[in-house]
Amino acid sequence: MAHVDGSAVACIRTESDTYFSKYSALPSYLHLLKGDNKRKINKEEIEEIHVGHPKQKDKVLNTVYSALIECLELDDVHYKHLTSPSRQLADKQVMLRQYRSFPDKPWEVARLLKEGLEIKHFKGIPGFYLQEEKYWTIAGSKGILIPFRNHYNEIVGFQYRIDNPQNVVEVKVNRPGLKARIIEQPDLVQVSFDGEIILEEEIKSNKTWTTIVHENGVKGWVRVVKGNRYFWLSSAKKPEGTGSGNPAPIHVAVPTSKLKEWKEGVSLKARTVWLSEGPLKCAKRSTITA
User: Which of 91-95, 169-173, 217-221, 274-278 is predicted least confidently?
Assistant: First the structure.
């Protein structure tokens, strides 16, 4: 993310002393740019990027996603996480908010949905894509599917919390040109400087920074950390797929007692609206503040 005048950028890969979004599912760091380093953006020259098919209308998304929920179950390990002391969700909340586990055989679920809904394809439905030009399936990894409801109580998207996030490399740059990536999970790191590979070794996942020295100069520091745990259900860049954005779903969380009575297609009225992040956190807070 870049400021319109090019004087600042927010990056999720390269650290700085200042957080831009510290407690987000995607923590990012603020970098101030000066002089020739400024990257001013001409909005008129930026073309809107569409990855895959445009999203279907909310009512269509709700039809498919509601049917998807009916085809899925919630694994015991995910139920225990949601009702654990860290989440503190009650059985009633878990049931009404319709949390589910990502399926072991997503292609089977897609086939059942296609037959049950009597549709020819899933074009425009984020998460679905055509595998090997033969059959529809769902993109994702094992974890908890979290429905996103709009202001009409329509399910218009999902995030999913993966069980085992992969490791990623964080980089603090001392000299421009330093890059690092994991070439083999969990901790085999490749470091390059100005395109030249200068290091390949195992760096254990912890909070300790490894100093990168090359040609008698400190180029920067790297460390291995756990990657992101939350992702949008999206099939962008996959065959016949659809991205989750344009626009990204906004989740409307209401108290469980209200959710039970909330009829689909009816917009609720409220005197106070709280803005927050994280659909699971919102589920808990909406109950506390009811």
Answer: 274-278
What is the residue range of 137's domain? 58-164+229-288
HEC string of the chain equals CECCCCCEEEECCECCCCEEECCCCCCEEEEECCHHHCCCCCHHHCCCCCCECCCCCHHHHHHHHHHHHHHCCCCHHHHHHHCCCCCCCCHHHHHHCCCEECCCCHHHHHHHHHHHHCCCCCCCCCCEEEECCCEEEECCCCEEEEEEECCCCCEEEEEEEECCCCEEEEEEECCCCEEEEEEECCCEEEEEECCEEEEEEECCECCCCEEEEECCEEEEEEEEEECCCEEECCCCCCCCCECCCCCCCCCCCCCHHHHHHCCCCCCCCCCCCCCCCCHHHHHHHHHHCC
**Is residue 51 situated within a structural domain?**
no
3 belongs to a structural domain: no
Total structural domains within the chain = 3
Same domain (yes/no): 117, 203: no
**CATH classification of the domain holding 129:** 3.90.980.10
Tens of pLDDT, residue by residue over 252-287, are 999 999 999 999 999 988 888 888 878 888 876 665
pLDDT digits 0-9 by tens, 214-259: 999 999 999 999 999 999 999 999 999 999 988 889 999 999 999 9
Say if 272 falls within a structural domain: yes
